[in-house]
Amino acid sequence: MKDYIVAIPARYASTRFPGKPLVLVGGIPMIKRVCMQALKSNAKSVVACVDDQRVAKVLENMDGTCVCMTSKDCACGTDRIASMIKTMNIDPETVIVNVQGDEPLINPEHIEQVASLLESSGCDMATLCFEIDNVKDVFDPNCVKVVFDRNSKALYFSRAPIPYERDNFRNKEITDISELMHKHYHHIGIYAYRAKTVLSYAAMAQSSLEVSESLEQLRLMQHGYTIAVAPTSNPPETGVDTQEDLDRINAILDLKNS
């Protein structure tokens, strides 16, 4: 599938990591590294949705990438993409893949997969996941979990363990993945949707589930929108939220280049 746009929202004044889009990843500013990975997909264009001229400057003259300035007041990445859609007058039916601006090792295959999933599923949004193989992640609130039905439509996303194995969890401390009764899936924060869905999302008030879990995709679900979910067998490297994450990503790149 080639008729889609990759949108990369990036906020300069990150609460946990100020100036994050400009930190060096393998000697390259992170926002540029993310764009480089997105350009390896079959997207017809890559748009960086940024809120600071310093970030825009590092993307000047980058072939295949354009920059859209957005407000510093955007509450989340999806709102930033909605602003871009309005500014650039994007057709409502255009498929957009949301790649977060702190994913410097984003896999182009995942971009292709989620765009194709949106088309084939007929859902309002599509996203990916992978099977958890570390029991610690099942109980880690920073690891977002997802459960889905037999038609691969999301039933719920949560920071809590889902499904909650009542009899299993209450009777003993789970220390190994083999002790679980069900498969548990880690949600990957990449989304595909049409421009009109993004605009609808931005016009909605925050939902109670979204606020409770601090997961923006629950806003769509609580308003009756459908989300397709597909597992991938090649889990991505996690993004950069802290200096420790950045050090880990740079170590991975150093190893690849050695």
Automatic annotation (TrEMBL):
Enzyme class, UniProt record, top EC level: transferase
Signal peptide: none
Keyword entries, A-Z: Cytoplasm, Lipopolysaccharide biosynthesis, Nucleotidyltransferase, Transferase
MF (Gene Ontology): 3-deoxy-manno-octulosonate cytidylyltransferase activity
SUPFAM superfamilies: Nucleotide-diphospho-sugar transferases (SSF53448)
Pathway linked to the protein: Nucleotide-sugar biosynthesis; CMP-3-deoxy-D-manno-octulosonate biosynthesis; CMP-3-deoxy-D-manno-octulosonate from 3-deoxy-D-manno-octulosonate and CTP: step 1/1
E.C. code: 2.7.7.38
UniProt catalytic activity: 3-deoxy-alpha-D-manno-oct-2-ulosonate + CTP = CMP-3-deoxy-beta-D-manno-octulosonate + diphosphate
Record Pfam families: CTP_transf_3
Alphabetical list of InterPro entries matching this protein: Cytidylyl_trans, KdsB, Nucleotide-diphossugar_trans
Subcellular location, record wording: Cytoplasm
Family: Belongs to the KdsB family.
Function text: Activates KDO (a required 8-carbon sugar) for incorporation into bacterial lipopolysaccharide in Gram-negative bacteria.
PANTHER family from the UniProt entry: 3-DEOXY-MANNO-OCTULOSONATE CYTIDYLYLTRANSFERASE, 3-DEOXY-MANNO-OCTULOSONATE CYTIDYLYLTRANSFERASE, MITOCHONDRIAL
Name of the protein in its database record: 3-deoxy-manno-octulosonate cytidylyltransferase
Protein source organism: Succinivibrio faecicola
GN (gene name): kdsB
